[in-house]
Recover the amino acids of this structure.
DNA sequence: CATTAACCCGAATAAAAGCTCGGAAATACT
DNA sequence: AGTATTTCCGAGCTTTTATTCGGGTTAATG
């Protein structure tokens, strides 16, 4: 680990873009290997040599494209965050298309979020628990911001949403609570309660707050 | 870091109990130094030599009481969790004593939780984001379980709490959501919204769900 | 075909950090 | 006081791991 404490955002970016097709493959293989190792064995298990090995690439090639170990992990996580952002946004659009039926809309969106997170459970668990520079990755901050923007925009557009003293604060809290609850249940699997039950109940609760 | 991946719970416990008073002081100084370093500089900054140095103790003495680095951090975090558990439980008892007034009770308890977490914000931030074996620490699991027990017990005792299809699931979710929301706002400090506003709004939302 | 540029390789380097061990010093016990 | 036990010490061993670098290989270019 060492004195890798204060990390600059610049250090988290890839060093060089591949120009040829085979280089592109090398680059992708490295990112993919990093993601797999991280998800399967945790942050401490991600060493540059193991990443290179699993990617079927030499350690030298790895450093051709990435300035350091962190940038590999950051690239992998950035990719995942872009995917999740896309899926969640798409899920919202689909939910909004069910305009007349609030219950169906909420239900649809909750399930989209749950699915997006669940599909990447192992990786997210490690990322959230162990990666020290997680919140220095622009795409990670971006996802949080996106969620809040979506929520606040939804509030402004729809008159019927959230009638509390402070609309902005309550919208912030509602989004935070829903997102956290989903994350929590996806990552920590409560023993006695089925996920389906939890999803249904969550929908009920959200409806009651709107 | 090395191959410290699969950690046994036994490895997280102190090796030996101090018998003399000066030894007790040494032990405590080590735990305290670990906590301070962790909170101030993050997990990667906690090296055994630095802990010993900050504790004013030699590295040899450190290994007299702790079998490895993780056990120092685990001891520090276990202590904090016990403190938080105590404060939150105490806060609940105080809230319950305000029996007739649900709003005052909820408000009081929310504030107790917020205060308990806020006071240890820096340490908790690092613990939750960076400590790989956090959830292997019995006291950490204990806090989660305690919260759920408190919530479920409260539901059973009080008839007026949570009327949804599935009482157990909704109670689980409510507790999870509230705790997450407080943790989130304490750790991530949303820019535009004051903490006071958020607390008030959270109380309103909880009341609406009960 | 010649030349340049991009890409790939992996042994070796160097630094960091966890932990050991032999023995000295302080404290308790009788 | 004399002995046993507990505590403390810190230089150094060992292992791990990120990163470099000199040189070879493949692909683009003219």
């Amino acid at each position: 680990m060492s004195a890798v404490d204060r990390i600059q955002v610049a250090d988290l970016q890839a060093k060089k873009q591949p120009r040829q097709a085979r280089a592109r493959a090398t680059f992708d293989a490295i990112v993919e290997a990093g993601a797999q190792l991280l998800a399967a064995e945790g942050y401490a298990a991600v060493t540059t040599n193991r990443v290179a090995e699993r990617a079927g690439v030499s350690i030298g090639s790895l450093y051709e494209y990435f300035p350091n170990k962190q940038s590999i992990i950051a690239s992998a996580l950035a990719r995942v965050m872009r995917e999740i952002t896309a899926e969640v946004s798409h899920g919202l659009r689909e939910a909004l298309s069910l305009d007349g039926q609030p219950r169906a809309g909420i239900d649809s969106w909750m399930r989209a979020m749950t699915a997006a997170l669940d599909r990447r459970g192992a990786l997210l668990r490690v990322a959230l628990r162990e990666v020290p520079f997680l919140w220095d990755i622009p795409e990670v901050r971006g996802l949080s911001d996106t969620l809040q923007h979506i929520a606040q925009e939804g509030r402004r557009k729809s008159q019927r949403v959230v009638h509390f003293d402070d609309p902005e604060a309550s919208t912030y809290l509602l989004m935070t609570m829903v997102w956290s609850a989903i994350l929590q249940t996806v990552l920590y699997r409560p023993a006695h309660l089925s996920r389906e039950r939890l999803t249904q109940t969550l929908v009920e609760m959200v409806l009651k707050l709107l």
In short: Chain A has nine helices and no strands. The first helix of chain A runs from residue 21 to 41. The CA atoms of residues 36 and 183 of chain A lie 20 Å apart. Chain A touches chain B at residues 1-5, 41-45, 128-132, 134-135, 164-166, 168-170, 172-174, 176-178, 180-181, 184-185, 190, 192-193, 197-198, 200-202, 204-205, 208-209 (CB under 8 Å).
